[in-house]
Amino acid sequence: MVGWNIQDTTRLWLEGWIASQQGWRIDVLARPLAQSTTP
């Protein structure tokens, strides 16, 4: 599950929790990934 330009990450956390309750393995990153500037 990935979100772009999300200010409030609460919905992503809740969707991750719901998916984990259904047996999915969800990895949550607490901070955004840095954008790479190398081609």
Automatic annotation (TrEMBL):
InterPro entries membership: MlrA-like_C (IPR053987)
Top-level taxon in the UniProt lineage: Bacteria
Pfam families: MlrA_C
Name listed for the protein in its UniProt record: Transcriptional regulator MlrA-like C-terminal domain-containing protein
Limits of the Transcriptional regulator MlrA-like C-terminal domain: 1-36
